[in-house]
């Protein structure tokens, strides 16, 4: 059984964020748990044939309609 890339992307993203948060000294530089959870959910969809990472990130960042 092959591993799904979305799960690996999400887990890697979380690990990087947690490592980054451990190194920063100020709270405003930390990535919030809510942000990590939201982006992690986006990344887990990567295995869907209809998944468009760029479009999903535009929605998350509220950049819809901008080029």
Cα-to-Cα separation, first versus last residue: 39 Å
**Proportion of strand residues:** under 5%
Shape: flat
- The whole-angstrom Rg is 14 Å
Assembly category: single chain
Structural class given helices, strands, pairing?
mainly alpha
| Total domain modules | 1
Total count of strands: 0
Describe the structure.
This protein has 67 residues and is an all-alpha fold. The chain has one domain (5-60). It contains three helices and no strands. Helix 1 (5-23) runs antiparallel to helix 2 and helix 2 runs antiparallel to helix 3. The protein is flat, with a radius of gyration of 14 Å.
Concise overview:
The protein is an all-alpha fold.
Features:
67 residues; mainly alpha; 3 helices; flat
SSE topology:
Layout: H1 5-23, H2 33-44, H3 53-60
